[in-house]
Design brief:
110 residues, 7 helices, 2 domains, globular, mainly alpha
Length: 110
């Protein structure tokens, strides 16, 4: 028997405030007592438009082991508040891969 996927009725399309959506999502996830896997599935099911297209490259990895913390960080990096281009350029040139940071996480951060 298939497990029931948690439902979250709000949608995020990648064009509105990621921070506002995330606050609402995490408030509901906590209130409903979702674990990492349930939160991952609910978040994935709430994505539409640009946001859904952006995570499509991650779907194969997420189907085998959904990780909410990874998905949240990835979406934050993609749709979160952007910094000033000069500051971002300076951070890019100073950024180095951490000792315990995977190459994939390093690439996402860049």
């Amino acid at each position: 028997m298939a497990k029931r996927v948690p439902r979250f009725t709000e949608k995020y399309d990648g064009t509105t405030s990621w921070a506002a959506f995330l606050r609402l999502f995490e408030f509901n996830a906590e209130r409903l007592g979702w674990n990492e896997v349930e939160s991952s599935w609910a978040l994935l099911n709430s994505l539409t438009g640009r946001a859904a297209a952006a995570v499509s490259s991650l779907l194969e990895d997420l189907q085998t082991k959904p990780q909410y913390s990874f998905l949240r960080r990835w979406l934050q990096n993609r749709f979160g508040t952007k910094t000033n281009p000069r500051v971002a350029r300076m951070e890019l040139f100073q950024r180095q891969q951490g000792l315990d940071e995977s190459l994939e996480d390093f690439a996402i951060a860049l």
